[in-house]
Amino acid sequence: MKKVKSFFTKLLLVTAIISVCLNGVGMFTKVHADPLAFQMDARAAYAIDAESGQVLYQKNATKRYPIASVIKILTLGVILQDIRNHHLKWDQKIKITPAVAKMADDWHFSNVPLMNGEKYTVRQLVDSMMLVSADGSTEALALADAGSTAAFNKKMMAFAKKAGVTDIKIYNMIGLPNGDLGKHKLKGVDKDAENLLSAKDVALISKYLVDEYPETLDITKQKFANFDVTKDQQYLMTNVNALLPQNGFAPKDGEIDGLKTGNTDRAGKCIVSTGTFAGRRIILVALHTKGDWNNQSKMQQDFYNKLSAEYQPVEIKKISDLSTKLTSVKVKDGKNKNKTNIKLTKEPTVWLPKNMKLQATQPTLKMYNSDQKQLTAPVKKGQKVGSIELHISGLPDFSIPVSASQSVAKKSMF
């Protein structure tokens, strides 16, 4: 009988252990982030709300890859900057050299016809560069602006730096392998070298370009434009962006108005698109997408449709909108005060699932330069002290900076 009791006792103990383990597994699963709302069949991808900087999706987003003709957004940035600085003019005519005419006549590349010795305006060349990714036009613009590929590369690097991008490799303005530029290739550089940027880099440059040079979108939203090859010959350009309004892959809600595609053997099919959804500008980058151009466009369309259908932007006016427990923070060594109120440094708008309340984002306060949830006096009014982290179902966490709304002097030692 004792043996039977002992057997049942052991059985109950094992059952209890298994139960605890299974429960533990369940709790462990809940701690992990929810499945991502979006999945993109690409080597790398990055999507942001351009105003708030909220990341909506990321995949290998900081690793550098070839980006093909997507680099022309950076080329455009330099050209627009130099037009604004009166170094170039929209109606300025650029004469086509034999080397540029050869590039424009090569069937391997994207182009409009450019005739040797013919002159074309900066506006014509810019339109053809952005609508049909004309490589000869891009080369003509860069050489007229800076005189050489190397000199224009320096301008591109400087523009990228203004956008907050520094760790990139730039070899030319077109996005082709270095050797494909023939006479205008970089000397002493491998013929297969291509520009290397990350998906995040492309998004930051795109954001800066659209913010600082909004005329960009007047160019990239054109569906058609005529290109006068000669006085007697005209070429109708059709924008290659299949997501533009009324095109086959236009999203249901919202409107795409840019930006650029690209393709080389190493880079694969790349795209950066942008448009407004629920009044918010979204930028979406995908590098080396799988399948054909239709697959790429459908993937981007699906992203925008799902964002519009399942998510909405919600404005946050004050910290108490998130939690009343996070409106103040303790202060160590304060004179006459042991805490200070905090406030949002900015009033951000955040994308949330349509059935999710702000309070359900599990907001947590993280202090700068401290593992503790407190400050050390002195604290100045307006001083940035930390951030509130939001955990949003299906999306990456979002960080909102907070500042002290009161000053706290340091306690005297005497």
Salient structural properties:
single chain; about 425 residues; alpha+beta; Beta-lactamase; Peptidoglycan synthesis regulatory factor (PBP3), Domain 2; 2 domains; 6-stranded mixed beta sheet; 5-stranded antiparallel beta sheet; 9 helices; elongated
Describe the structure.
There is one protein chain. The protein has 414 residues and is an alpha+beta fold. The protein has two domains: 42-311, Beta-lactamase; 316-404, D-Ala-D-Ala carboxypeptidase, C-terminal domain (Peptidoglycan synthesis regulatory factor (PBP3), Domain 2), CATH 2.60.410.10. Helices cover 30% and strands 25% of the residues. The chain has helices at residues 2-31, 72-84, 98-104, 122-131, 135-146, 149-162, 199-212, 215-220, 293-310, and strands spanning 42-49, 55-59, 65-66, 93-95, 119-121, 196-197, 224-228, 234-238, 255-264, 268-277, 280-289, 311-315, 328-332, 339-344, 349-353, 364-367, 374-376, 384-390, 398-404. A hairpin with a 3-residue loop joins strand 9 (255-264) and strand 10. Helix 2 crosses helix 6, helix 4 (122-131) crosses helix 5 (135-146) and helix 5 (135-146) packs across helix 6 (149-162). It starts with a helix and ends in a 10-residue tail after the last strand.
